[in-house]
Amino acid sequence: MAAPGEALTPSSYISHHLSNLSTDKLGLVEDGSFWAVHIDSLFFSVLIGFGFLWLFRSVAKKATTGVPGKLQCFVEILVEFVDENVRETFHGKNPLIAPLALTIFVWIFLMNTMDLIPIDFLPYPAEHWFGIPYLKVVPTADVNITLAMALGVFFLMIYYSIKVKGIGGFAKELALHPFNHPVMIPFNLLLEVVSLLAKPISLGMRLFGNMFAGEVVFILIAALLPWWAQWLGSLPWAIFHILVITIQAFVFMMLTIVYLSQAHEDSDH
Questions:
Q1: Which of 40, 101, 127, 145 is the most exposed place for a label (fewest CB within 10 A)?
Q2: Is 45 contained in some domain?
């Protein structure tokens, strides 16, 4: 942010809004440290997660077999939508998959929706009323959050691959696929390990890239247009962005189901 008395340029405005409230900027750890924590991303992701759990729990407790309310009807439609996709995509038997898919879809969608809040609506009062210098309110525009979620899916993939196939079966899948011959084991291992590691990286980076790009567009509109003309640019982009945030949540959910379905499939070698 510009120093007191210094004019705020578009460049400094954009840089300010792309900066996280991290422990290194607050002087709690060394500047640029690997162990720096993005406080704002963690705060909003946890807050949204608890809000989602509270809302769905309250709907479940008040659910009735009679004529449902609008909120109960919406939640039931959402649950049925996710359950249908799980049944069509997941071919194993695991009671965790459907609740996990529902949690991923709703949580990511709500975090993505934070991108529709006007750029300065929360950062401005946070800085001028509470002295918080930086505040990014879109957790999925932070690569640390998206990769952390993708790594969670990756660890579940490894866990269920070993649980269903055994350590030997999982090792054979890596060593004897796609070419089932001992001579090709080194090549198979290289190919399969790279393919395995690419799944969480692409899963996390896809979500981050789309949400970060959307946030940058909103910031550019806010920085380069007069305040009275911002609606001309931000409103059409926000309407289009509703489609983006929904698709990204759906894609992350579907790829999670597909990857876990593959982990439950026992390959024949």
A1: 127
A2: yes
